[in-house]
Amino acid sequence: MDIIKKRKRLGILTSGGDCPGLNAVIRAVVNHGISTYDWEVLGIPYATRGLLERKAIPLSRHGLDLRGIDPLLNMGGTILGSINKGNTLDRIDEIVASYQDLQLDALIGIGGDGSLAILNKLRTAGNWQFIAIPKTIDNDVALTDRVVGFDTAVNTIVDALYRLTFTAASHDRIMIVEVMGRSAGHLALHSGIAGGADVILIPEIPYTIAGVCEHLAELRDKWGRRFAIAVVAEGVKVAEDSSLYPSCQTPSCGIGQYIAEEIRNCSHNELDIRVSVLGHIQRGGIPTALDRLVATAFGKTAVDLIAAGETGKMVAWKNGQVEAVSLDAVLLESPLHVAANSSLVETARALGIYIGNGAITS
């Protein structure tokens, strides 16, 4: 009597804020899982909410083709949906039971450090086979050189800075551009350097309004520059010499607006200052070639780790290659902030960009 071997059921979900490249990960997992290992691959819609509701969508290599054209490689967002709120940890037992009811053999979770921390606790409670894939525009996941979504977000901001520079130059304006990043300054630092900013303010480095104003005055008086671009990370704290705090507390008036008002107060000249908050536009768009490459390599490696029986690992990009690292170790060191010995901080200073008043804070 022949014994019918049960096909392995692999679940995949996206959790936390969306970013470009998530669909490229899904595409790689589906293609490799089905073609190489003949597994069933099930998409879990809306992350842990989908698990709670016992929902699973069968995914196939050609299920989303448009007359043979595969759209997932360059489609932004996530076809599985995502959530970044809720009381997941209050319902661990329910989620573990739902996982069992769906008869999943393993799960791949794509998320930032917050989402991965929650999924890791669920993994431990349910004794799941689980592999994590890092994604975030904030680039603050530890033990990896790259994450899915960061490169596209940087390019989006750089494009915005390029456009705003012409308006600033035409009207002799100071443009304050507020970008995302949570409590880390990677996004502001990378995009500010690549986008030609004159001032970059990040959470890790203390600054003074006097220092900002002196730099802007030098640009005007020494170099004849009548406009400037300042990139400000959303997690930046108030200045050491703040004159407005607490009357203009952040985030009540927005960090970009706060910086603009402080600059107006410290200048003897009437300044034309405008604030642009890029907001969620940084999350959208077609993923760059680099994000597609990283996403695809991460998806393929995650499937291979599942096949090898690994669990509790995160795929990481190190020295141009993908490797597996301990998820517990990642979460212990996350969120990752701009390092004190960052060569990019020194690069910014060498280019004459104002980036604060000395050492990076811990």
Essential attributes:
about 350 residues, alpha/beta, seven-stranded mixed β-sheet, four-stranded parallel β-sheet, 11 helices, elongated
Task: Produce a short descriptive summary.
The protein is of the alpha/beta class. It has helices spanning 22-37, 47-52, 92-101, 113-126, 150-171, 186-194, 209-223, 255-266, 289-307, 327-333, 343-350, and strands at 9-14, 40-43, 57-59, 106-111, 130-134, 174-179, 199-201, 228-233, 273-277, 313-318, 321-326.
Please give the structural blueprint:
Layout: E1 9-14, H1 22-37, E2 40-43, H2 47-52, E3 57-59, H3 92-101, E4 106-111, H4 113-126, E5 130-134, H5 150-171, E6 174-179, H6 186-194, E7 199-201, H7 209-223, E8 228-233, H8 255-266, E9 273-277, H9 289-307, E10 313-318, E11 321-326, H10 327-333, H11 343-350
Helix pairs in contact: 1-9, 3-4, 4-10, 5-6, 7-8
Describe this structure in words.
- With 362 residues, the protein is α/β, with parallel strands linked by helices.
- It has eleven helices and eleven strands.
- A seven-stranded mixed beta sheet has the order 3-2-1-4-5-10-11, with helices on both faces. A four-stranded parallel beta sheet has the order 7-8-6-9, sandwiched between helices.
- Helix 4 links the parallel strand 4 (106-111) and strand 5 (130-134).
- Helix 4 (113-126) crosses helix 10 (327-333) and helix 7 crosses helix 8 (255-266).
- The longest helix is centred in the middle third of the chain and has 22 residues, at 150-171.
- 49% of the residues are buried.
